[in-house]
Amino acid sequence: MTTALSKPKQETVSVNSTNSPQINAASLDSLSPNQQLLPLTALVNSHDRLEIGGCDVVDLVQQYGSPLYILDEVSLRTACQQYRDAFAKHYQGQSQVLYASKAWSCLAVCAIVGSEGLGIDVVSAGEILTALRAGVSPSLIYFHGNNKSLEELTYALESGCTVVVDNWHELKTLESLALEQTSKPRIMLRLTPGIECHTHEYIQTGHIDSKFGFDPNEIDAVFAFLSKSSLNCVGIHAHIGSQIFELQPHQDIGGVMVQWFKLAGEKYGLKFSELNIGGGLGIRYVESDDPPSIEEWVKTVSAGVTDAFVAEGLALPKLLCEPGRSLIGSTCVTAYTIGGSKTVPDIRTYITVDGGMSDNPRPITYQSKYRAVVANHMSASLSQTVTIAGKHCESGDILIKDIQLPVTNPGDILVVFGTGAYNYSMASNYNRLPKAAAVVVEGGESSLIVKRETREDLLRQDCLPERLRQ
Ligand SMILES: Cc1ncc(COP(=O)(O)O)c(C=O)c1O
């Protein structure tokens, strides 16, 4: 399996060293795969073009059009294996990694992740359906969400998924649904651990003022309810946020959760066996990002949980986690075709691409930063500072501000790195743009995993009442 930038075909140009280093062939070498910015198989081929999974990115755009999400299968499988291997090495109890499919839910992604032995965390009936159709066992599907509908809960129970219960309304709904089931529905409880972390406000979830999970004040009442219920509660869950670089908050989860494990057993006779500590490990989008490795994260959470449970004299729980971004974020790039440009004298030059906030809403939503290269001239010198604008009718539709690129021309291919997580899954049809296609690449072969929408697809759900017809 390829795990490093392949040397033979690669340009060996010196590392670019401006104050704000940018990527081209010169700096690919310095951005080793361990630094998580590039897919593991990225290299510059003899045509001076970017290649991923053995496929020339410019050829891929010719074949499939743009914008195009390009998913590197080797990178995704490697990340799954890193999680699995790290738990085997650092945790003495049982463990199960679940892929948080909100990061990118589609059949092929669920199938790859499932074939690596991971389960799937889902947040809607649509994500359940996708995981099931991809062949994932319902026993490995965990259903989250703070407002699951009756129809979704029924579907989840009938499918045999575990429901991670978020609030009283849901708990009581499940209790009444349990009466119609032949076996006790398998549930977990989502609790708000009161752990703060430094990330964007919108993706913090573990602090007390959060819409998710039961408040610590409610826990006694919830456990008392469960002790007399028809539900099979197997454990508790917490997720503290996303794109987190600090290890301390994740280390602290064990200490908080063990108290509730203990309370459940000692006071209410509830026998919990599973502890789910959520996801949240961040990835490197730009050079200045410095996240811990998957192994460091797993080692830390394993130690935190082990120490806390040993100190309380409790058996180690089956430890679950549900990473999304750190599994898939760096495994995918988005290729765009460059269109026109506009220079505002003494201010900036805008270069436009044929996508934008509809295929990547993260910059406009979270002010997220990305890195990019011109894939058809990988070793051209980085001679201009430009801003990459999307094509949407929105001034804020800027993908990357102030990036150094070579001179570009209309028709050049711009590749943005790190677009595997929360891009396709958050994509929209804003301005009635058809959603982009996605391919998976491996060993020089590319296969379509999501078809490009057509103009006609955009009208598929529209209805024109008779009286409005002209
Ligand atoms: C409950 C839950 N679990 C897991 C995740 C995945 O987080 P990440 O992609 O940061 O690993 C999220 C993301 O918001 C989440 O809400």
From TrEMBL:
The modification N6-(pyridoxal phosphate)lysine is found at K102. It catalyses: meso-2,6-diaminopimelate + H(+) = L-lysine + CO2. The active site is at C393 (proton donor). This is Diaminopimelate decarboxylase. Specifically catalyzes the decarboxylation of meso-diaminopimelate (meso-DAP) to L-lysine. CDD domains: PLPDE_III_DapDC. Keywords: Amino-acid biosynthesis, Decarboxylase, Lyase, Lysine biosynthesis, Pyridoxal phosphate. Substrate binds at R325, R362, Y366, E394, Y422. InterPro entries: Ala_racemase/Decarboxylase_C, DAP_deCOOHase_LysA, De-COase2_N, Orn/DAP/Arg_de-COase, PLP-binding_barrel. Pathway: Amino-acid biosynthesis; L-lysine biosynthesis via DAP pathway; L-lysine from DL-2,6-diaminopimelate: step 1/1. Its EC number is 4.1.1.20. Homodimer.
